[in-house]
Amino acid sequence: MKNVGFLLILVLILGMSGGYAQSDAEQYYLAGRQALSNNNFLLARDEFTRAIQADSTNAEAYTGRGQALIRLKDIHSALDDYNKALQIDPLNSESHLLRGKANYLIQDYQSTIQDMNFLLEKNSDHTQALFYRAESEFQLGYLQKAIRDYTKIAELEPDNAINYQSLGYAKLQSGDTQGACMAFQKSLDKGNRGAERLIQKNCK
């Protein structure tokens, strides 16, 4: 009977300690989110690290730490965290978006396209995914694909002046000077004063 009682107490203690660990992980995670919102990226990194130490299966904590690391210019470590988050939760849209953006920063455009394709399969009107895919396609020389995506963004966000400028660049590179000039003019009309120089340089 004494052994049975001891085992019951041990089980209760272990269960309680697990509960505390989970609670600690949640508290550290929330502290990390708050630090991120306050632009305190060193503190955010450290709080998310504590959350991970308390619960190594917390995909959101890896994603949050990745966000902090990006702002601290540690892109490769951020990618490691996004990859870990996606190992735990492969369908996490935020992690795919952030990993794609991080890969864009290191000019791994094919990997960016893969993550954006994942998002666009779920939501074909995801404008951020369309933009990063278009930018990556442009960098890789897939001009018609880039033009297609920039055009789709223009339909979804008709007041996005910078997108019209990007569309103009892609059309210019593809040899469609008239189409490029129309896009640059649209960008200017939507308030992008920088497009005026592009019109003067490329449109006669």
Provide a compact summary of the structure:
The protein is mainly alpha-helical and 204 residues long. Helices cover 82% and strands 0% of the residues.
Question: What does this entry look like structurally?
Answer:
- There is one protein chain.
- It is built from eleven helices and no strands.
- By secondary structure, the protein is mainly α.
- Helix 10 (177-189) runs antiparallel to helix 11.
- Mean pLDDT is 91; it is low at 7-21.
Described by strand count, sense and barrel closure, the largest sheet is: none
What's the overall average pLDDT, rounded?
Answer: 91
Query: How many angstroms separate the termini?
Result: 96 Å
Beta-strand portion reads under 5%
Q: Could you give the order of the helices and strands?
A: HHHHHHHHHHH
User: Which ranges are low-confidence, i.e. pLDDT below 50, for 5 or more consecutive residues?
Assistant: 7-21
**Mind telling me the C-alpha Rg?**
24 Å
Report the structural category: mainly alpha
Could you give the count of β-strands?
Answer: 0
Q: Give the % helix.
A: over 70%
Structure annotation, total helices: 11
**General shape:** elongated
Oligomeric status of the shown chains? single chain
Which key terms come to mind for this protein?
single chain, 204 residues, mainly alpha, 11 helices, 0% strand
